[in-house]
Amino acid sequence: QVRLVESGGGSVQPGGSLKLSCAASGNIPRSNAMGWYRQAPGKQRAFVAGISDGRMSTYEDSVKGRFTISRDNALNTAYLQMNSLQPEDTGVYYCYVRPVAWDNKSWGQGTQVTVSS
What we know:
By secondary structure, this protein is mostly beta strands. 0% of the residues lie in helices and 55% in strands. The chain is built from no helices and eleven strands. Strand 4 and strand 5 form a beta hairpin. The model has no long low-confidence stretch (mean pLDDT 96).
């Protein structure tokens, strides 16, 4: 079983920044990808960013140029640096880890990000 612990959420004004962390422990897949989805109020959970253990990253179009995902393989921890935050970035951010070979995600508990003036 994999355990994911997220931190770094909070409330900021538009244009502000936050950095999320996600620490994985337990039975982590040997070759894996980590990343985040977010769920805005009244909407389905949607992909935000992901990174492989080879550090290849992908982003949802609306966050490109504003968010940066990174990871420390030695610590089994992924990070999401979020800059130029906008109200539409508000939601619960869920970290995941999954084997590279198939889409079997393990999820964190979620952390709230609120962007409001």
